[in-house]
Amino acid sequence: MRIATAEEMNKIDRQAMQQYGIPGIVLMENAGLRVVEVIQQILSDIKGKVFSILVGKGNNGGDGLVAARHLHNRGGQVKVLLLADPEELQGDARVNLTIWQKMGQPIYQVNQVNGINILKLALLNTDLVVDALYGTGFRGSVNEKTGRVIELINNSSLPVVAVDIPSGLEADTGRANGPCIRATHTVTFGIPKIGLVVEPGAGYAGRLHVADISLPKTLLESKEIPRQLLTGEMVGGWFKPRPGDAHKGSCGRVLVLAGSRGMTGAARLAARAALRAGAGLVTLALPESVQLVAAAALEEVMTRGLPETAAGSLDLAALQPALEACAAADVLVVGPGLSCQPATVELIRELLPQLTVPVVIDADALNALAGADRLLNGLNVPAVITPHPGEMGRLWGVAAAEVQQNRLQLAKEAAQKWRVVTVLKGARTVIGTPAGELYINPTGNPGMATAGSGDVLAGLIGGLLAQGFTPEQAAAAGVYLHGLAGDLAARRLGQPGTLAGDILEFLPAAMQSVLTKEMK
Ligand SMILES: NC(=O)C1=CN([C@@H]2O[C@H](COP(=O)(O)OP(=O)(O)OC[C@H]3O[C@@H](n4cnc5c(N)ncnc54)[C@H](O)[C@@H]3O)[C@@H](O)[C@H]2O)[C@H](O)CC1
Ligand SMILES: [K+]
Q1: In what residue span(s) does the YjeF C-terminal domain sit (predicted)?
Q2: One domain, residues 395 and 446
Q3: For ligand 1, mutation pick of 60, 95, 175, 214 (most atoms within 8 Å of CB)
C-alpha cells in the first residue's frame, strides 16, 4: 500500500476531479459516509447516540458536515461545533454547511467569545466526537483558541474519530508542533499519509482505517509515490514453497561472523534467528576462546573458532579463515557482538571489499565503518545494513538526534549514496533501497527495545536472503516479521517482560500468520 504526502494526496484529488471528472462533492460525500460506517462499527448502533462534530473551515470540515448529515439520518443526535465563521467555508464544504442549515439542524459557533463553554456543555452530553477541524491542509501549529478546544477534547476521555488525519498533526512528518487531537480511530481517505504511520503521528491516529472514497486505483498505486507501507500479504507473497526434495544444503547456508568475549549472546541470537528464518545450514564463526561457550548453547548451529586478540575479539589474522568460511556459505551476517577493538575494526575493513557473497552488516561491523563509509560503495556484493539511529549517525557523520529528525529522507539518501539496502531501525523502522524506494514497517512495539533484539533481526534478514529473497525483500520481510513476532510475544508476555529470545521463539508463528494469509 502506497503512503502519500499531503501534496501527493492533493495531486491525486486534483487528478481525480480534472482528469477523471469525479466531482469533489462526490469525494466529500463518500468521505463523510466512510466515517459514519466506521462509527457504526465502533458503536454498533447510532440511533439515540449523541455526536459532537468539530468542523473547521476547509474540506476536512466539509467531510465532517457530510458525516453529520448521515449520522442524523441514522437517528443520531448531532451537534455541529463550528470553529470558523460560516462565511469562511467555501466550495463543497459550504454546500454541505448550507444543506445542514436547511435541515434546520443546530450549529454552535465555538470560535465566539464564550465558545469554550458552549463546547464544554456539548461534551457533557456526547457519546462520540468527530474531529473534522483540519486534515491534509494543516501546517504548523494550531492557534491558542483551537489549542484549548483540542485539549478539552483530549481530556474528555470521549472516543474521538479523526477525519483523514488528527487535527494538529503534520501529514508529512507525523509531528505535532502543538496541541493535537489524540484519536481513538482515524479514517483516512485513499491511502495513508506518512504522518499516520510513523511516530508520534501513529500514536495520535489510534486505530487507522483506510477508506475508499472512489479515488481511481491507478492514482493511488502510482509509482510516482515512492513509499510503501509493508503488509502481511506483500511479505507472504515473497515466500516460495520448498521443493519436495529440499535438503539442508539447499535451503540456504548462512555464515555468522560475530561475538567476542562477554558478547557471545549476540552471536548466538543472530545464528539462531537465521535458522528460525528457514536457512538450512548456519555456521557461527567467532573468537576461538569463546567457541565452546557458544557451541554448548547451539545444538543446530555449527561453530568455528577464529584467531583472536588478547581482549577476546576477532583478530586481523581471522581474515583468511573468514574468507574461506564465506566461500562455503550463501550469505554472510557480520557484526553482532564483535566489539570495537582496533584489530577487529581492521579485520572488517579488510574483509568487506573482498566478499563474494551477499552480506548483512549490523552493529559493530557498522561502527567499524564510521569514517570509512566509502567501503560500502566498494562492496562487490549485494548488501543490507541495519543501523539503529546511533550507528546511522556515526556512519553519516551526524548526531543521532539529527538522524531522528529526518528518518525517511536519510534512509533514502543513504541507500542511494552507498548503494546498499538501508534498514534504519526505530519507531517506525524505515527501509531505503538503492533504487530510491522506501518501505515503512507498521509492526513492532516498545517491548522490543531490549538487548539482542537487533541481533535477531540481522540473523533473520540473513536467513531470508540465503533462501533467495532479494536484499530488498529480505530486509522488508525481516523487519515486518521481526516486529510481528515482537507483537505476538508482547501480547502473550507483556511488553516489559519480552526478551530478544522471545522474539526469536515467536518468529515461526509470525511467519505462519503471513503464510496462511497468503495461502488462503
Ligand atoms: N484527499 C482527498 O481525496 C479528499 C480530501 N478531502 C478532505 O479535504 C481535506 C483537505 O482539505 P483542505 O481544505 O485542503 O484543508 P483542511 O480542511 O485540512 O484545513 C483547512 C484550512 O485550514 C488552514 N490552516 C492550515 N494550517 C492551519 C493552522 N496551523 N492554523 C489555522 N489554519 C490553518 C488552511 O488554510 C486550510 O485550507 C482532507 O484532509 C480531507 O479531509 C475531501 O473532502 C475528500 C477527498
Ligand atoms: K481531522
Answers
A1: 231-514
A2: yes
A3: 60
